[in-house]
Fold each of these.
Amino acid sequence: MPNPFDVVRTDHEITLTVRGSLDINTAANLAEEIDKIIATKMKRIVVDLSQLDLIDSSGVAALVKLYKGVRSTGGGVTMSGARDQPLAIFKLLRMDKVFNL
Amino acid sequence: MAPPIRLTVPGTLRYRGIAVRVVAEAARLVSGSIPQDPNDPLAYDVRDPFDTAVVSAFSEIFNNVVIHAYQRRGGGVIELAITPGARELVIELKDHGTPFDLDGVAALPSELDEASLPEGGMGIHIAKTMLDEMTYEPGPPNLWRLLKRLPVASGGTNTGAQARGRS
């Protein structure tokens, strides 16, 4: 199963693009990448969710881990582009306001 | 009413995608939703609010059975009975694993902020909130019963396939 994400690093920021289904079967691979992103201590992380079609609680947990981990090192996470089912899940969990979606 | 659609899959995450696709198609029988893009590589359509609720809730309960009833080790099956009605969809999941302590699930924080963002325990909350009814009978066999009704339009008209003259 292909990874549902891409990571692009520049000198100033890291952009994580998540696509397809981020669920219990795919979130584990993303969690490994999230550990690497947090370890960079980059101050600016951008998460593009515009290509994400489906998410479950495991996928949400992975993104929460990223958010908390980056914030704990003094960085910031900007999430954008959530739509349809993923946006409904973030709203249901009341995370849309925390993530400014 | 037509007899239920029955599907039995091994109780592992490997078979999750098959089960979710069948449930998504059953949801579309009720909602009458049309795929937005026939070339969409995603095999299930989850843009319609009814489909979104059904697929989201079912996915979480399927995960729960694999993780808690079968403790990720498999060794059992999940028996699905999916009944699409004119205005509602009923899904039953039966497993023969360890009973789940539904009453022991903690509620999410009432006020959510950066510090209280949860990293777990969200699945049952998602399922319960997305559905009109969710019951659990511990066993074994353990039985989850999920029910989602179509919303009624402001004029009192069913918004689903029946309202569009489809059967």
Note: The longest strand of chain B covers residues 77-84.
Amino acid sequence: MSETAIKKPRPKHLDLIAIRLPLPGIVSILHRVSGAGLFLMLPVLLWLFGSSLASPESAAAAAACIANPFVKLVLFGLLWAYLHHFCAGIRFLFLDIHKGLDLPTARATSWAVLGVSLTLTVLIGAKLFLGGVI
Amino acid sequence: MKSRIVVGAHYGLRDWLAQRVTACVMALFTVIFVVKLLMLPEYTHEAWRAMFAGGFMRFITFLFWLSLFFHAWVGIRDIFMDYIKPVGIRLALHCVVLLLLIGYAGWAAQILWRL
């Protein structure tokens, strides 16, 4: 690249409100956000997992905690985070081996990731909710 | 040789590859877990407990948690490298996350082997 090209002032859109991410970019940042959220909630998830297994009493305590509507909402959020991270992760693995790199395919698989993870969240969430698990 | 920063990633393929391998382990476990869950005769505490009590399920569940902690370490470190610029704060955060994840690994072992 020539000197003049480097010195030429370029438009910078570091204002997060002004940046309009393309669709694959949205999937990518949601992958990061969902991963960070899952990491932050690991103690809660481990506690629920441990309590559900340890004894009938501790399982009842975990169930009582889950009965709170706010906790339910958080768990549905984490269910989505897991499913989005799962679907987007599989997409990234394919990109790693150079499958689906062209723009139309990349856009289509991005829509698929968003659609499949949301649909699965609703289906699994409804099954858990109606089955009385959550 | 390029200069290396103390709070950078391991330079090379190792962590990149580890992130992918652990992802595959977790994805595989997730499928096995969902199939086993759907095959449960009833959704009770006893059935849930029995599902994890078998040696194979206990083993792969522990592998899942270990993979998750290793995977989380690589991912969280990437986030810190992107957003946390001061070396001291970044190093402190790396230590906190590493120690947390090692603690979680002990916690997961305790949950599974106290069954």
Note: Chain A has one domain: 23-130.
